[in-house]
Amino acid sequence: MNDKKLKKKKSRFAETWRRLKKNKIAVVSLFIIFLIILAAILAPILAPYPYDLQDYSAAFSRSSKEHPLGTDRLGRDVLSRLLYGARQSLQIGLFSTTFAAAIGILVGAIAGFYGGWTDNLIMRILDVYQGIPMFLLTVTLAAVLGPSLRNAIIAIAISSISGYARLMRASILTVREMEYVEAATAINVRSARIIRKHIIPNAISPLIVSITMSLGSSVLAGAGLSFIGLGVQPPIPEWGAMISDARNFLRGQMYLSMYPGLCVMITVLSFNLLGDGLRDALDPRQKT
Amino acid sequence: MAALLEVNNLKKYFKNPGGTLHAVEDVSFTLDYGKTLGVVGESGCGKTTLGRTIIHLIEKTEGTITFEGKDISDPSPKELRQLREEMQIIFQDPYSSLNPRMSVSEAIMEPLRVQGKLSKAEIRAEVRKLMDTVGLAERFENAYPHELDGGRRQRIGVARALALNPKFIVCDEPVSALDVSIQAQIINLMLDLQEALGLAYMFVTHDLSVVKYISDDIMVMYLGNMVEKSPSDELFSHPLHPYTKALLSAIPVPDVHNQPDRIIMQGELTSPINPKPGCRFMARCQYASPECEEPQELVEHSPGHFVACCHYKELLPQQ
Amino acid sequence: MNDNMNDNILEIRDLVVEYRTDEAIIHAVNGVNLVVKRGETLGLVGETGAGKTTIAKSILRILPTPPSKICGGEIVFDGEDLMQKSESAMRKIRGEKIAMIFQDPMTALNPIERIGAQISEAIAQHNKIKRYEAENRASDMLEMVGIPMERYNEYPHQFSGGMKQRVVIAMALACNPTLLIADEPTTALDVTIQAQVLEIMQSLKERLGTSVIMITHDLGVVANCCSSVAVIYAGEIVEYGSAVQVFDFPTHPYTIGLFGSLPKLNSTEPRLKPITGLMPDPANLPTGCSFYERCPDAKEQCSGSKPAMVEIEAGHFVKCFRDGGGE
Questions:
Q1: B48-80: pLDDT as tens digits
Q2: How many CA atoms lie within 13 A of C105 on its CB side?
Q3: Which end of chain A has fewer CB atoms < 10 Å from its terminal CB, N or C?
Q4: Cα(A10)–Cα(C273) distance, rounded to whole angstroms?
């Protein structure tokens, strides 16, 4: 017996992680995202006050020992509200993206694999769909279903399905034309295995990047919906709602809108930069 | 003994918005066990389509294909699976023809795994053997294609083609993407394999010096038509078709003293979409005359040497 | 010394170019010396990754920096060191004095601009002449490369590959450059079209007196159109001489190997004689002769130190210990 076994091949995840680690910006972004998620989970422990505790005597107080980031017009602690707000914002990002990606990828994959009239039908439906402005659709849905966190998630998800579907379809069409797919046919590989081993693994990379990036943009869209009152309802804190709340006090208490604004910006930026890093790390042709 | 492969009046048309593209027009030939047929022509002449049509990677439009005495023109799915074990293909581009996410051993293993006749351990042993046969060191078995150079990648392609023990391999420009010194390594490997395993090759290429070296017979194609077919030496010493002559004279010869008198052809390829019935080379041919507008018949000038040109006799060198 | 300057349009001395990445330093060009005489065609022959294109781009100073870096050497063009030139001075030299043709003609042509306009624009950019003069000149150039006037107003996609390459040649020669660098100009073309393009290049070169550096991997192309040859391996010139010297008496083992790898039309040998192995990793070059590992005549001395360039007969240089590279 030959004892020299096949060296355990590195999994795709491990390989991607190894490459991602070399990209400092992506690692920092990942770290920040991790911190934000941790903050959201540990909000009840980390927050110095309950998010809805009102203290009129301390309204509009600047940062102090008691209130590191100050308080809002009702005397609620801004830091606590930001921490709790992270929960809502991240939920919107995570759930809407998962939902949209799952449906979009499936629909796009069906269109890409089967082609012909299936493809045509799906694509024409998506065409119509894309003619509707995204924000208008979101606003209409939120208005019809009523404003709530859940409905904001559904609205954002529905409006981003078509993007995923198109990306997945395009990606599959490209890979399907690759010579190695033909090469697999030539050695009798059945279509199920061709899809599983040759097409999906090579078509999925742009989707992973896109999903990462749209986590950020969903957070932004959620904040936008809450800002115009169609998302998370008071008194539950959400970053967009907090900015909306603070907009009347821009002149005197700019910090009130600045802190949640910064949170949104940092979150969105981190997801985008991580997506950028992933794009490079997922390409197997990249040298080491 | 009957020929290994017999192709009769094979046609392949593609429907295009602009008309019908006649990629392969009425090609016939036979190939014996263990022999090599070289197919030469310039880009767009249908040589690649011809190879892929024969092994049923593309469905033919018309014509018959006989393999080992059996008509395989329209195989059932089951017959096709069997056929693919006996007819294989080596691709031109060792970069795009390998799945970037499969390691060397996975890639070579795949045909055996799909075939499902061997146990895991047997497959592993077989992969080792194949890697050894094509000259890939064992340390590469976990490497990915992008970590290897073009020559080694092409060796993976060869190993994959050999895995199922075929009798016939279509070699679609297998060395054109490689550097000369590596090219020579792969050509020698293919010649060694042919000798050891009795393989028959259909060697598709645009490189005439390579084809001369490796082929027993050579077929010259122009815009989907077979314009000349002949034993290799005969073709180079007595080319008959004006296109073949121009093609041979255009080969860059690495010799500073004896540069051939080049026949510089005017014009470029005409389109193979909705072609006229006559000689397709007419537009660029210096001997073109009204007779060339008639369909050209394939004439056997000497044993095994066929040519499709109505003027070839006038062009023969004076005795 | 002055005579020398007039004789040689281009002299490259000890050129060293590196590519720096996070992981490694890639030694692309390692001390290259080259001379191009006025009016001659120099063939620069080597395989993928040997550094041919890097040398060409160094001459024009169009290497992307970073990651690449010219670490040393001089490039003397018409008596002036290009390395000392300012970027604006280089801009004047590019196209006007030195032109370059790339392998893929599509990269050199703007797909949404008419062919004629592209050429006349290139002419107008370097010459202070009236618009109609530039246009006349452009159509003259097109005629010279065998493209009829009627196609002056067509777009690149309406041309076939060979015609596009001829347009690129017309564009490159439009300003009557002193030196033309052609980087694998016919590699993407079919043989019959290659013959056409090479012939056009040859006749234009003779008419305009342009000096040419022909970068290629094809010894056949070199034999067809070059008067002298430099063989490059792993970023070094290993053999240099007139075409007759190199083709009749190939001396460096690598050059001999290259010739042995070529299938010859009149050979009866059952097998080719390829060079074994691969070119060394340019990020990890051996200390000795870079061809040592593949060389059939390798001696102990070859792995220890690098041989020097030796003139084995007038004008024929070889870098090998076997020919006295040790002294």
A1: 899 999 999 988 999 999 999 889 999 998 999
A2: 23
A3: N
A4: 39
Tell me the nearest-neighbour CA distance from B37 into chain C, angstroms.
Answer: 17
Q: What share of chain B is helix, strand, coil (3-state, %, to 5)?
A: 35, 25, 40
The model's pLDDT over A194-205, given as tens digits with 9 standing for 90+, comes to 888 888 888 888
Torsion of CA C82, C85, C86, C88, to 10 degrees: -60
Residues of A in Cβ contact (< 8 Å) with C22: 22
Q: Do A186 and B84 touch (CB under 8 A)?
A: yes
- Say if the Cβ atoms of C272 and B187 lie within 8 Å: yes
- Pick the closest to residue B205 from B189, B221, B191 (CA basis): B221
| Separation CA A35–CA B207 (nearest Å) | 61
Q: Determine the angle formed by the axes of helices A205-227 and A149-176, rounding to 10 degrees.
A: 160
Element at C85 (helix H, strand E): none
What is the reported pLDDT for C241?
Answer: 92
The pLDDT value recorded for residue B7 is 93
Q: Which two tokens stand for residue B169?
A: 């391999």
The runs of H, that is alpha helices, within chain C are 2-7, 52-60, 87-93, 105-108, 115-126, 131-144, 161-173, 191-208, 219-225, 243-248, 253-261, 300-304
- Give B240's strand partners: none
Q: Residue by residue, what is the 3-state secondary structure of chain A?
A: CCCCCCCCCCCHHHHHHHHHCCCHHHHHHHHHHHHHHHHHHCHHHHCCCCCCCCCHHHCCCCCCCCCCCCECCCCCEHHHHHHHHHHHHHHHHHHHHHHHHHHHHHHHHHHHHHCHHHHHHHHHHHHHHHHCCHHHHHHHHHHHHCCCHHHHHHHHHHHHHHHHHHHHHHHHHHHHCCHHHHHHHHCCCCHHHHHHHHHHHHHCHHHHHHHHHHHHHHHHHHHHHHHCCCCCCCCCCCHHHHHHHHHHHCCCCHHHHHHHHHHHHHHHHHHHHHHHHHHHHCCCCCCC
Nearest to B250 among C192, C219, C273 (CB): C192
Structure tokens at C65: 């920096």
Complex ipTM above 0.95?
Answer: no
Whether residue A3 is predicted with pLDDT greater than 80 in this model: the reply is no
Are C41 and C205 in contact, with CB atoms under 8 Å apart? yes
- Does any CB of chain B come closer than 8 Å to the CB of residue C88? no
Distance from CA of A262 to the nearest CA of C (A): 33
Nearest to B223, CA basis, from B241, B235, B203: B241
CB contact B182 to C (< 8 Å):
yes
C2 three-class SS:
helix
Residue with tokens 């022959």: C45
Give the C-alpha separation, C305 to C326, whole Å: 9
- Report the distance separating Cα B258 and Cα C244, nearest Å: 11
Residue C56 tokens read as 């060409």
Mean pLDDT of chain B: 88
CA distance C218 to C258: 10
- DSSP secondary structure code for residue B119 in this structure: -
Average pLDDT of chain C to the nearest whole number? 85
Low-confidence ranges of chain B (pLDDT < 50): none
Q: Which two structure tokens, joined as six digits, stand for C51?
A: 């550094």
Distance (Å, whole) CA A218 – CA A151:
13
DSSP-derived letter for residue B140 is: G
Nearest-angstrom CA–CA distance, B22 and C18: 50
In three state form, how does the secondary structure of A124-165 look?
Answer: HHHHHHHHCCHHHHHHHHHHHHCCCHHHHHHHHHHHHHHHHH
Model confidence, pTM: 0.80
Cβ within 8 Å of residue A63, ≥6 positions away: A69, A70, A255
Q: Residue B286 CB: number of other CB atoms within 10 A?
A: 9
User: Does the CB of A287 have a partner CB in chain C at under 8 Å?
Assistant: yes
H or E element in which residue B156 lies: helix B150-162
